[in-house]
């Protein structure tokens, strides 16, 4: 078994494919937009009307105007149905894992939802990858990452046994007639491009290309993913002309793979592909193995660790900082990558070149491609506004992640990874407190069960006291991610307001985006007993 990917449920797969939304999908890009909601083309008029694909959100619900046509208010029961529609839970049954269970959920603001989730269990059944991807300018880029990025990371981490298994499974065993290969040349080349990175990584001799740390594996996979998305978009758009472009851009480490497979492309498909390439996504991926948590963050998603202090109170530890203009070190990094005479233009109105809020992101290639590429091939299709003002020394944007490492202790109870739709409404401290209270309150939702074996009266008394405390905090939702979404929308100074929740969930699509963003949350619980056993013998409590 290679590894397991979670989307709407847990799947076990024997082939090296990526499962996404209950569909087994070959390792192909989704940059080519379709006629469905998964990738609607961004037309020239639409593009000109977008000032920034990721603008600041309202952080309060206190001031807003009513829509022109008042939507019917839903009932509290209907509100709960909406909140729980996308919730999922997974319990780790096999012993010897640092994770005990995982809750996740999503609530859309955009239509279609621009966030994506990917969760993978590695082949050792003890290591996990958890990813949240917050798209902007459309859902396409985030969906590509959810389908492919964890596979790139997994290929950078395997043991020798897994390497051999993957190489064997990636060897083509099916032959197609020439006319079929010609008809689907684009799709075949996309697949081979994705697999080429995996094969190169797995085939390299350890002495020549050793990824001997999780940190380096995450950085390598993030960089390779973004580079390949760029290559695929340009190759599909420009075909054989691509080789000439690459020769004129020596600062980029291009590895052309498309050969002569691209005849002149249909203009509608070119528009769809290019418009989709202009979308982007931020990402946060956590690798959890044994008592080690390694986080890779690109953009403004956040991860927060919840732990119990010695006095029994809950504490919140932010894992890294958002890559926005509010991060002073990130601003200095950006200034240092461009000439001093661009200091007044590279960051304007707290946005990259006055337009993009996150200072690191996947996609968004109009902030990365050389100026002559944008002028010759992008502007004629999307218009002058596709070229940002003061565009002098690209690339201005990078997908390279910041790496944060943390050694888990028995006091660490869970980690919350979420898109900024949650953090716009709740602080890390509030989130940790809510999940902590939910942990004790969730116990009261089910019947009292005694552990197997002999139980003392003192142990039973302690269980009853914990249950009494849990009854006072009994939540409405068994899923912690749903619990957070409910409180993010309906919390007031006096508690939850069902009317407020119903009103906010009744807003029509063209209004709701004014008050909140898409919300995507993963809550992963740690196994305290496992972490106790992982301590040195002298430190065990």
UniProtKB/TrEMBL annotation:
The keyword Hydrolase applies. One of its GO terms (molecular function) is protein serine/threonine phosphatase activity. Residues 99-526 form the PPM-type phosphatase domain. Keywords: Hydrolase, Metal-binding, Protein phosphatase. InterPro entries: PP2C, PP2C_BS, PPM-type-like_dom_sf, PPM-type_phosphatase-like_dom. Gene3D superfamilies: PPM-type phosphatase domain. Pfam families: PP2C. SUPFAM superfamilies: PP2C-like. Belongs to the PP2C family. PANTHER family: GM14286P, PROTEIN PHOSPHATASE 2C. This is EOG090X05SW. It comes from Daphnia pulex (Water flea). The gene is EOG090X05SW.
